[in-house]
Amino acid sequence: MHIHKFEKIWLIVGSMTLVLFLFIIGINAFAMGHTPPSEDEILDPQKVDVTEPFDQPGLKKIGEKEYELVMIAQAFTFESNEDLKIPSGATVHFKVTSKDVVHGFQIPRTNVNMMITPGHVNTITHTFDKPGQFLILCNEYCGVGHQAMGVPLEVIE
Fold first, then answer.
1. Is the Cβ–Cβ distance between 93 and 81 less than 8 Å?
2. What counts of helices (H) and strands (E) characterise the chain?
3. 98 near 117, Cβ under 8 Å?
4. Residue 10 sits in which domain range?
5. Which of 5, 32, 56, 146 has the largest count of CB atoms under 10 Å?
């Protein structure tokens, strides 16, 4: 079978582009740790209330301007034991799981966005540099009360 010279060139260029693309994806995934959430931390969704740290959800100070916010997503609410107020410049480690169905976890105007799956512990970290009001929203349709699922987060001076 005869392949035209220009077809051979485009096949070589296309193949090399594919190899380069896969190489870059491999470096990002394995060397730089840019991987999707995994099943490293799983728990029984029926026993969330008695499993640490979800047995005491809420905001905890863990260092100088460093906080951990443990939340449980369930039927149209995010469980947290207090008003969420943090100082400007603080880093917050969010740790969230779901008891019932798939929920979303998004804070508009930030890069915080995760899908919360029952039985999986999801974590994400964000530093709030500017003061203001933020709203933690469920961005995954979870039932008839989905539109009311939100919790205010206040970043103060």
1. no
2. 1, 10
3. yes
4. 1-35
5. 146
**How do residues 43-97 score in pLDDT, each as one tens digit?**
888 999 899 999 999 999 999 999 999 999 998 899 886 789 999 999 999 999 9
pTM (predicted TM-score): 0.75
* CATH at residue 98: 2.60.40.420
Asked whether residue 40 is domain-assigned, the answer is no
- Pair (128, 109) in one structural domain: yes
Shared domain check, 128 and 57: yes
Q: What per-residue confidence (pLDDT) applies to 85? A: 93
The single residue listed with the structure tokens 């995994």 is 38
